[in-house]
Design goal:
The chain is built from nine helices and nine strands. It is α/β, with parallel strands linked by helices. Strands 3-2-1-4-6-7-9 form a seven-stranded parallel β-sheet, with helices on both faces. A two-stranded parallel sheet has the order 5-8. Keywords: Oxidoreductase, Plasmid.
Length: 279
Amino acid sequence: MSAKNPKVWLVTGCSTGFGRYIAEHLLDAGEKVVVTARKTDNIADLEQSGNALILPLDVTDREQCQLAVKAAVARFGRVDVLINNAGIGFFGAIEETDEEDARRLFDVNFFGTANAIHAVLPHMRARRSGTIVNMTSIGGLVGCTGVGYYCATKFAVEGLSDTLRAEVEPLGINVMTVEPSAFRTEWAGSSDEVCAAIDDYDSTAGEARRAYHASVGKQAGDPARAAKAIREAVLAPEPPHHLLLGNDAADAALKKADALKANVLAWEALSRSADFPAN
């Protein structure tokens, strides 16, 4: 298939999961795609498409992110869309999670996303055009038991994205966050987890961890349909700021919005009382 006006997409974390599905869908749709992964063995087959540029990329390396953008521009002349998909998971209660594992999550999920953004922004600003898509999670809007630090990284990306949007929309650059619920990818089966569990959390974080493992291959979300939805949203005349993917994600987000509104209204008088009195 050949897209009528193909865009140039740079996708991170394409070796498995959403990244692989997104890259495949974009190439099938006739788009031009910079396909990246830390190790390119699992994505080398995609080079058979003349519209693919295969690059090694560890998003924790800011210089390598800049080189990837430079190579993309050299090959295709521009980068229209950045999809920040690279990320890792981790299972454990907050107290069970040690500092090293928590920092690793932030290095990849948050700072890796930021590195790619910093690399592509000068190019997009110069063209006054572009779209940045940051893959977060419903766990970036709603805290989920057993993945507290993972959710914290995704909440951080949501906050970064909200601010970035306000800064770059006047320059012609769109910023979208994508919040999936559980999809049939390798995420739940490949995520690391705590070595020493605490018994007091067995019925909360422990139960959640077991449920994640049991869900592998049975998740409701179809990653191929998700890839199609992401492209459709990016190409829409007015792309959404937030794209929820999956029934569970939509339900959880609406429930959170209702609960937040109810909480604000219930405590509104006390909240407003904290300001200096009006003259």
